[in-house]
TrEMBL record:
Keywords: Repeat, Ribonucleoprotein, Ribosomal protein, RNA-binding. Residues 33-99, 117-183, 204-272, 289-359, 376-446, 463-531 form the S1 motif domain. Belongs to the bacterial ribosomal protein bS1 family. This is 30S ribosomal protein S1. Binds mRNA; thus facilitating recognition of the initiation point. It is needed to translate mRNA with a short Shine-Dalgarno (SD) purine-rich sequence. It comes from Psychromarinibacter halotolerans. One of its GO terms (cellular component) is ribosome. InterPro entries: NA-bd_OB-fold, Ribos_protein_bS1-like, Ribosomal_bS1, Ribosomal_protein_S1-like, S1_domain. Coiled coil: none annotated. Pfam families: S1. The keyword Electron transport does not apply. The keyword Iron-sulfur does not apply. PANTHER family: 30S RIBOSOMAL PROTEIN S1, SMALL RIBOSOMAL SUBUNIT PROTEIN BS1C.
C-alpha cells in the first residue's frame, strides 16, 4: 500500500516534469524559419560561433557580416540577429544564417518604404545583363541600365560600392524581385534645382553659360544647374550650317533668355539677340536697283540665296538668274560659295526678305541684238529646233530667232519647205523684227532673195493689160504664166461671148492678152480675165468712135476702131 502510494507519487511528479519541460520548450524554443537574437562567443576559421540561447550554438561565415566591398564588421561579444533554419543538424549545432536574417529584415523595411513611396539606401555591387545589382541592406535589387542616370553612363566604376539613395519601382516578395531606379532620384533633385535656378531667371536676362553638348539643331548650355537650348537659328544673324562652326564644348558664352516654360522648365536661349540686328539698316545700305557683290550660301530648286553681309541674305529666284537659260536648275548657273554680282529688286523688312536679280546686272541680250542687228540685217546660225510652226536659229549671246513657216520660201508651202531642214544645219536669214519685251526675234530665209512676185508686179496694177502664156488646159479654165508667176483664168473669164468660153480653143504655148482684175500681194496671186479685157476694149472704142445714139452699129464702131489701130 505504502509502496503503491510512493509509486503513484513518483509517476505524478514525472508527468508534471514532462509537462513542465514540454511547456518550457514550447515557450522558449524558437520556431524554425524565424529570426532570433544571438551572441558571438568566438571567431575561428573564418566563422563566427553564435550562441542563440536554449543551449543552442551555430556557425555563420564572416563574409555574411560584411557589406559588398567592405571587411566584416563583427567581434566577440556582439549581439546579432540570425535566421534559424534548423534547430539541430548532424553535428548537433543550430543551422543559422546572417544573410537570411538581413534579407527578412530588409524586405520588411523595403515593403514599408515602397508602400510609403520613400527612398531607400543601397550600394551598387555587381554588373549583370541589362544593368546592375544593388544591395539594399540585405536584399538584392536590379538596377536597369536606363535607370542609372539621366544620360547614358559609359563608365559605372565610380558608382560601384557607393552608398546612395534609390527609388523602388517594383517589388515582388514571393518571387524575390526588386527593381530600383537611381535616375528617378536624380531627376527629382534636378527638378528641384531647376525650379530654384529658373525662379531666379526672367525672359530677357543676359547670363553666362557653359556649352555642354552640341547637336545638329543647336547646343545645350548649362546655366548653373539647369540647361537651356540655344537653337542654331538663334546663334547668329547670318546663316549657320552647323553649331560647331561658332561653338565648342566647354566654352563659356553669353546668352539671352528668350523664353521660359514654367511647366516643362524648358529654357530657350539666344546669342544673336545680344547683337545689333543688321535688318534695321538694310534699306539704307541696300537701296532698290543698287548692285552689290555677295556670296552664294544655299541653292534650291527655286533659286539661290546670296549673303549680302553677315545676317542679311537675299533670294535670287530662278526666273531672275539668266536672260536666256529658262527651266534650268539654279545649280547649273551658280555654285555654293561663289561670289556674284546682284541687283536689289525688292525689300520686305517685315518679312525680312530681299529679292535679288542676277540677270539684271547684265544687259538684256535682246536689246543688245536689236542695237547691233537692225531690221534687214543678214545673220547666220545653227538650226536648234524644228517645230510645227517654224525653225529656231541659234544667234549670239545664247538667244534664238524664229523663222516662221511662211518665211521659209516664196514658192513652196511652209509645210513642204520645212522638210528641207535638219537640226544642226547652218542657215542664213534676214532680221525682220525684234521684240525686246516679249524676247522674240523674227527671221526670214526667203527674204534673202528678192520677192519674185513684187519684181514681176513692178508697174503692174489693177486694170493693166499684160500678155501671158498658156501653160495648161483644164475643164474649169486655163493656167497661164506671167514672168514666172502662175495664175488661173476661169472658164467664165475666157470670153465676153458665152459661146467662146471654151478652154479647148486654146493651146499650150499660146500668147494671150489679159486684163489684171486683182493684185493680192498677201496671197501672191493675180486675178486675170480675157472677158474683162474685151469689155474694156469695147467701152474704149465706143468712147472714141461713136455711140449707140448716132445710129452706127457695134460692128461699124469696132471696124473703125480696128482700122484706126492699123
Amino acid at each position: 500500500m505504502k509502496e503503491n502510494r510512493r509509486h503513484m507519487a513518483q509517476n505524478a511528479s514525472m508527468e508534471e516534469f514532462e509537462a513542465l519541460l514540454n511547456e518550457s520548450l514550447e515557450i522558449d524554443t524558437p520556431n524554425e524559419g524565424s529570426v532570433v537574437k544571438g551572441k558571438v562567443i568566438a571567431i575561428e576559421a573564418g566563422q563566427a560561433i553564435i550562441d542563440v540561447g536554449y543551449k543552442m550554438e551555430g556557425r555563420v561565415e564572416l563574409k555574411e557580416f560584411a557589406n559588398p566591398g567592405e571587411a566584416p564588421d563583427i567581434a566577440v561579444g556582439d549581439e546579432v540577429e540570425v535566421f534559424l533554419d534548423r534547430v539541430e543538424n548532424a553535428r548537433g549545432e543550430a543551422v543559422i544564417s546572417r544573410d537570411k536574417a538581413r534579407r527578412e529584415e530588409a524586405w520588411d523595411r523595403l515593403e514599408k518604404a515602397y508602400a510609403d513611396d520613400q527612398r531607400v539606401e543601397g550600394a551598387i555591387f555587381g554588373r549583370v545583363k541589362g544593368g546592375f545589382t544593388v544591395d539594399l541592406g540585405g536584399a538584392v535589387a536590379f538596377l536597369p541600365g536606363s535607370q542609372v542616370d539621366v544620360r547614358p553612363v559609359r563608365d559605372a566604376g565610380p558608382l560601384m560600392g557607393l552608398k546612395q539613395p534609390f527609388q523602388i519601382l517594383k517589388m515582388d516578395r514571393r518571387r524575390g524581385n526588386i527593381v530600383v531606379s537611381r535616375r528617378a532620384i536624380l531627376e527629382e533633385s534636378r527638378a528641384e534645382q531647376r525650379a530654384e535656378v529658373i525662379g531666379k531667371l526672367s525672359e530677357g536676362d543676359a547670363v553666362d553659360g557653359v556649352v555642354k553638348n552640341i547637336t545638329e539643331y543647336g547646343a545645350f548650355v548649362d546655366l548653373g544647374g539647369v540647361d537651356g537650348l540655344l537653337h542654331v537659328t538663334d546663334m547668329a544673324w547670318r546663316r549657320v550650317n552647323h553649331p560647331s562652326e561658332i561653338l565648342s564644348i566647354g566654352e563659356t558664352v553669353k546668352v539671352q533668355v528668350i523664353k521660359i516654360n514654367k511647366e516643362t522648365h524648358r529654357i530657350s536661349l539666344g546669342m544673336k539677340q545680344l547683337q545689333d540686328d543688321p535688318w534695321d539698316s538694310v534699306e539704307a545700305k541696300f537701296p532698290i536697283e543698287s548692285v552689290h557683290t555677295g556670296r552664294v550660301t544655299n541653292i534650291t530648286d527655286y533659286g539661290a540665296f546670296v549673303e549680302l553681309e553677315p545676317g542679311v541674305e537675299g533670294l535670287v529666284h530662278v526666273s531672275e538668274m539668266s536672260w536666256t537659260k529658262k527651266n534650268v536648275h539654279p545649280g547649273k548657273i551658280v555654285s555654293t560659295s561663289q561670289e556674284v554680282e546682284v541687283m536689289v529688286l525688292e525689300i520686305d523688312t517685315a518679312k525680312r526678305r530681299v529679292s535679288l536679280g542676277l540677270k539684271q546686272t547684265m544687259r538684256n541680250p535682246w536689246e543688245v541684238f536689236e542695237e547691233s542687228h537692225p531690221m534687214g540685217t543678214e545673220v547666220e546660225g545653227e538650226v536648234k529646233n524644228i517645230t510645227e510652226f517654224g525653225l529656231f536659229i541659234g544667234l549670239d549671246n545664247d538667244i534664238d530667232g524664229m523663222v516662221h513657216l511662211s518665211d521659209l520660201s516664196w514658192d513652196q508651202r511652209g509645210e513642204e519647205a520645212i522638210q528641207n531642214y535638219r537640226k544642226g544645219d547652218m542657215v542664213k536669214a534676214v532680221v525682220t523684227e525684234v521684240d525686246t519685251d516679249k524676247e522674240r526675234i523674227s527671221l526670214s530665209i526667203k527674204a534673202l532673195e528678192g520677192d519674185p512676185f513684187a519684181e514681176a508686179m513692178d508697174g503692174v496694177k489693177r486694170g493693166s493689160i499684160i500678155t501671158v502664156e498658156v501653160t495648161a488646159i483644164e475643164d474649169g479654165g486655163i493656167e497661164v504664166e506671167y514672168d514666172g508667176l502662175k495664175s488661173f483664168i476661169r472658164r467664165s473669164d475666157l470670153s465676153r461671148d458665152r459661146a467662146e468660153q471654151r478652154p479647148e480653143r486654146f493651146q499650150v504655148g499660146d500668147k494671150v492678152d489679159v486684163r489684171v482684175t486683182n493684185v493680192d500681194a498677201k496671197t501672191r496671186r493675180l486675178g486675170l480675165s480675157i472677158k474683162a479685157r474685151e469689155i474694156a476694149e469695147e467701152k474704149e472704142a465706143v468712147q472714141q468712135y461713136g455711140s449707140s445714139d448716132s445710129g452706127a452699129s457695134l460692128g461699124d464702131i469696132l471696124g473703125a476702131a480696128l482700122k484706126g489701130d492699123e
